[in-house]
Amino acid sequence: MKKKTKILLATVITLIVLTVVGFVSAGMYFYNVAVVPSHKTFLSNNKIKKNSPLYAGTKWYYNVKKIHWTQKSATGNLKLVANYIPADKKTNKTVVIAHGYMGSKEKMAPYAYIFHQMGYNVLTPDDRGQGQSEGNYVGYGWPDRLDYIKWMKKVIKYQGPKTEIVMFGVSMGGATTMMVSGEKDVPHQVKAFIEDCGYTSVSDEINYEAGQLYHMPAFPRWPLVPILSGITHIRAGYSMYEASSLNQVKKNHRPMLFIHGADDKFVPTRMVYPLYKASKGPKQLLVVKNAAHAASYETNPKLYVDTIKGFLNKYFK
């Protein structure tokens, strides 16, 4: 082999190695940004004002008597924590509420209040790696779906076999709700699902946010997102491509209410339409005008609550 050819070959190999190392390093960086639980600068942390529709529920949740529940995660042997709030009058109806990305049971207070006012017992868990639950990664709903089925079974054991359950979630919690809906071992006591602004899949959402937050074009989003998914699979035990709300909701035959803000720029409104279309059971769609991400209730509280009440009245005694 000629000297020039050897030099060219060595240069090409070096460039390939450097490129691979660069992409893997970038993947590790984004794993820490997207998957490792920590303060996220791109999330809003605005305090709830007294004139906000969210205020009454937040205040109520802080003061109401709560029963502290724990369980082990379905995989990974992690301690998970939840608050159970019984209804004012004894009932078999319970809502299980899933929170959003880097959220907690406390942040779901306004929604817990809605259902408690409707006469439901309320269970608000903390997902893996968030709130008071153990874990060093965010599951985006995928490993969490199995944990929520365990929570449901715990509710049934606590309340008895005549329990009736609705699962409700917002944002990542909405995706979690849809991911639960496609599982075979969801207890028959689960009568309905309500999802608010969930994404079609984790890979779709990560790909979208790479463009929105980092203005990243199609390349290098590919191959960066697959590399990130591979790192997540190794370190957190799940693939961002298997974590699909869309594929799960295709297997759902229970009633589901889909809610989305018409001005959602974080989980784009367009995602709700294929999700709604895919569900095989009775279904309803509410797109709230002028509502940004996870702001449908705050934007139009009467429409939001009335729609939920009307939907659940069809399936709960």
Automatic annotation (TrEMBL):
PANTHER family in the cross-refs: ALPHA/BETA-HYDROLASE, ALPHA_BETA HYDROLASE FOLD-1 DOMAIN-CONTAINING PROTEIN
Q: Which UniProt keywords apply?
A: Hydrolase
- One Pfam family cited in the UniProt record for this chain: Hydrolase_4
Report the leader peptide range: none
Q: What is this protein identified as?
A: Alpha/beta hydrolase
Organism of this sequence: Apilactobacillus kunkeei
Q: Does the keyword Nuclease apply?
A: no
Q: Which GO terms describe its molecular function?
A: hydrolase activity
Domain Serine aminopeptidase S33 per the UniProt entry, residue ranges? 90-194
InterPro entries (UniProt xref): AB_hydrolase_fold, DNA-binding_regulatory, Hydrolase_4
